[in-house]
C-alpha cells in the first residue's frame, strides 16, 4: 500500500489484514516526487521486503490518483510489476480516475440505476437502494 493511500482506505486495509493475521507494508514515497522512477523503485523495494524469507504478497493496493498529496501514480507499470513478481491480487483505488480517462475511452462506474444515460453527474447522485445490513451484522457473539 502506498504511503499516499487515502486515509480511510489505509485504515480499512490495516483492519482487515491484521484480522487475517497478515501485515501491511507501506511504500514510503518522498514529497515532492521528481519522477515515476522514484515510485517504481520504492514499490519494487517494498515487494522485495514482502517476499523476504519466502513470504507471499497477497494483495497490492495501488492508487491511480492520490488525493493528499495529489499525484498521478504510474498504475499500469505497477500492475505489470505485480504480475511479474507474482503478487496474488491487486486493488486499484481509482476514486479520481473516471474524469481523467482519455478522450474517446468510455468508462462507467459499476452502479447503474434510474438515471443511467443521463450523464455521469446525475447518474452518480442517486445510486438506488442502499443495503445497510452488512453494517448491522455481528459475526460472533460471546455470551458470558
Ligand atoms: C483516493 C481516494 N480513495 C478513496 C476515497 C474515498 O471515497 P468515498 O468516501 O467516496 O468512499 C477518496 C475520497 O476522497 C479518495 O480521494
From TrEMBL:
Keyword terms, alphabetized: Pyridoxal phosphate, Transferase
Protein name per UniProt: Putative pyridoxal phosphate-dependent transferase
Keyword Transferase part of the UniProt annotation: yes
Segments crossing the lipid bilayer: none
SUPFAM superfamilies on file: PLP-dependent transferases (SSF53383)
Gene Ontology molecular function terms on file: transferase activity
Superkingdom: Eukaryota
Amino acid at each position: 500500500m502506498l504511503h499516499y493511500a487515502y486515509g480511510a482506505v489505509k485504515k480499512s486495509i490495516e483492519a482487515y489484514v491484521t484480522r487475517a493475521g497478515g501485515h501491511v507494508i507501506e511504500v514510503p514515497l518522498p514529497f515532492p516526487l521528481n519522477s515515476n522512477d522514484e515510485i517504481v523503485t520504492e514499490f519494487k523495494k517494498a515487494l522485495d521486503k514482502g517476499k523476504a524469507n519466502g513470504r507471499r504478497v497477497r494483495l497490492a493496493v495501488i492508487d491511480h490518483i492520490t488525493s493528499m498529496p495529489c499525484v498521478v501514480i504510474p498504475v499500469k507499470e505497477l500492475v505489470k510489476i505485480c504480475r511479474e513478481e507474482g503478487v496474488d491480487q491487486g486493488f486499484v483505488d481509482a476514486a479520481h480516475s473516471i474524469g481523467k480517462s482519455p478522450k474517446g475511452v468510455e468508462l462507467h462506474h459499476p452502479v447503474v440505476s434510474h438515471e443511467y444515460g443521463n450523464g455521469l453527474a446525475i447518474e452518480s447522485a442517486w445510486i438506488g437502494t442502499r443495503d445497510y445490513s452488512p453494517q448491522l451484522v455481528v459475526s460472533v457473539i460471546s455470551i458470558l
